[in-house]
Specification:
- This protein is globular.
- It is an alpha+beta fold.
- 33% of the residues lie in helices and 26% in strands.
- A five-stranded mixed beta sheet has the order 1-7-6-4-5, sandwiched between helices.
- The two termini are 29 Å apart.
- The longest helix is centred in the last third of the chain and has 23 residues.
- The structure holds oxa(dethia)-CoA.
- The site of oxa(dethia)-CoA (UT7) has 22 residues, from helix 2, helix 6 and helix 7.
Length: 326
């Protein structure tokens, strides 16, 4: 008989960043950009980011993040029965980055592995999907990863986008549990806004057709992000019967300090409860939330038993949230 657990709970976190941080001034000089540290800090709050060396892939960044998460959970690769990688910058068209990562980790038990594409909402989507797998009783121990090498899809002649993003990976182990973990999740999409943020290219006939670089209407994204991040946060709080005051930490997708502040303000969450890592990581898309979470856990900021709200928004448009007891 299938044992259906009451809850799923994060039992370990991990993350990885490639190389040394690259400050705004260094990036501007290296890429010959018509920009300034002052502009970037004032409009985005970003001071530095990490960029992967040529040839470094999403599965390679994910590997140490997963090892750290497994170690923190007291698990080995053999315990894992589900691997989900949220990425928009996969190693290949196929096989999936999750399958490549599964092999790199040495998971040889036939665990399910697949990629999930929801751009910057990818990690929240993946966490929500894994939670449903675990609570159905079909799986017990999932590795959920956000891993990105956005530097590969940046147009370095477009100063409006290339200064915003960074590379990195974050992972969590999610396990069946009798103790409350994930309290509520909500996922949404509206594909009619697909043109607001996209990489409108494709591989076909032996070449890339269309545009292989990230294109964005920054101001439209900004307004949309603040609205849906506030809406979806309220949605999961209401579903779980948790008040804003009971929230210990808010981790929104790390895109721009101004988006984080506006979202926290709209939700009446004190700025001190909002975890910020975009200043040091830039926007790492699907990796941004697990990276921020892992950093805050390892620094002792987020502690066991605290109530944490994770929320993402990104291309598609997609958005979603997960409320949890850590
Ligand atoms: O995961 C979701 C991904 N995306 C986002 O979260 C992005 C959301 N949007 C934003 O964060 C902001 O809209 C940006 C940071 C992208 C832009 O900030 P803004 O305050 O909306 O600036 P803007 O686009 O209105 O541009 C203002 C000026 C323009 O010059 P003019 O036309 O006023 O002369 C731009 O050309 O700033 C110029 N500009 C820059 N100047 C120096 C744009 N990029 C740069 C730059 N350095 N890197």
């Amino acid at each position: 008989m299938i044992q259906t657990p009451k809850f799923s709970r994060i039992t370990g976190t991990g993350s990885a960043l490639p190389g040394a941080p690259i400050g705004n001034a260094e990036l501007i000089a290296a890429r010959g950009l018509d920009s300034s540290d002052e502009w970037i800090v004032e409009r985005t709050g970003i001071r530095s980011r990490h960029l992967a060396a040529p040839g470094v892939t999403a599965s390679e960044l994910a590997l140490p993040a997963c090892r750290h998460a497994l170690e923190a959970a007291g698990r080995t690769p053999a315990d894992v029965d589900l691997v989900i990688v949220a990425t928009s910058t996969p190693d290949y068209v196929f096989p999936s980055t999750a399958a490549l990562l599964q092999a790199k980790l040495g998971i040889a038990n036939g665990a399910a592995a697949f990629d999930l594409q929801a751009v910057c909402s990818g990690f929240v989507y993946a966490l929500s999907v894994a939670e449903k797998f675990i609570r159905s009783g079909s799986h017990r121990c999932a590795l959920i990863v956000g891993s990105e090498v956005f530097s590969r899809i940046l147009d370095w002649s477009d100063r409006g986008t290339c200064v915003l993003f960074g590379d990195g990976a974050g992972a969590v182990v999610l396990e069946a549990s009798d103790e409350p973990g994930i309290l509520a999740t909500a996922l949404h999409a509206d594909g009619s806004h697909h043109g607001m943020l996209s990489v409108p290219g494709q591989v076909g006939g032996g070449q890339v057709t269309g545009d292989p670089f990230l294109r964005m209407d920054g101001q439209a994204v900004f307004k949309f992000a603040v609205k849906v991040l506030a809406d979806v946060a309220n949605e999961v709080l209401e579903t779980a019967g948790v008040s804003v005051d009971q929230l210990d930490w808010l981790i929104p997708h790390q895109a721009n300090v101004r988006i984080l502040s506006a979202t926290a303000k709209k939700l009446h969450v004190p700025a001190g409860k909002c975890i910020v890592s975009v200043d040091r990581h830039g926007n790492t898309s699907a990796a941004s939330i697990p990276l921020a979470l892992d950093e805050a856990v390892r620094q002792g900021t987020i502690k066991r038993g605290e109530t944490v709200l994770l929320e993402g928004v990104g291309g598609g448009f997609t958005w979603g949230a997960a409320l949890l007891k850590f």
